[in-house]
Specification:
The protein contains three helices and nine strands; from the N terminus they run E-H-E-E-E-E-H-E-E-E-H-E. It is 27% helix and 27% strand. The chain is α+β, with helices and mostly antiparallel strands. It has one domain. It is globular, with a radius of gyration of 15 Å. The two termini are 16 Å apart. Strands 7-6-8-9 form a four-stranded antiparallel β-sheet.
Length: 154
């Protein structure tokens, strides 16, 4: 049941780097609109060593922020990665949510997204989980959603 993520960020090459941030709760429409607007503003102004990055981002399922950078144009730097973390932290503070609890994972159970603890993922065998370890756009497009089988899950 691989969802079709192949059309995400069509202007970006498969080798682009990806960062994902899962919110600890589903955002309402107003919060989602705010996040989408802020992602657009951030990615348009995101720089590495004062050079613009070829970047994009999106909010998926009203709780998953995905940021993408095409490093074939300009390599991302530590400072620019730090600025993206700062951006996510600002969104956290503004909305009073948590995007950095890495023990939370998002599963699809009967096509419905649900946050569960990584420690409880074994109880959802046969459902699907969003792999939080992806690092490239190719991985996101081809293997972001994986069936929950036996450990290790990713």
């Amino acid at each position: 049941m691989q969802q079709n993520f192949k059309r995400l960020f069509p202007e970006m090459p498969d080798e682009s780097r990806v960062w994902t941030y899962l919110c600890n709760r589903r955002l309402n429409d107003q919060e989602s609109n705010l996040i989408e607007d802020q992602i657009k503003k951030f990615t348009r102004s995101w720089k590495a060593h004062q050079k613009p990055l070829s970047a994009n981002g999106q909010l998926l399922y009203n709780q998953y922020i995905v940021l993408v950078v095409d490093e074939s144009i300009e390599r991302i730097s530590g400072c620019s990665i730090d600025s993206s973390v700062h951006f996510i932290k600002m969104m956290e503070n503004h909305l009073e949510v948590d995007f950095f609890n890495r023990l939370n994972v998002l599963i699809l159970r009967n096509e419905t997204p649900k946050i569960v603890s990584y420690h409880d993922i074994g109880a959802y065998k046969g459902d699907f989980v969003f792999n939080p370890r992806i690092e490239s756009l190719r991985e996101l497009r081809e293997n972001w959603l994986v069936e929950i089988k036996d450990p290790p899950y990713f």
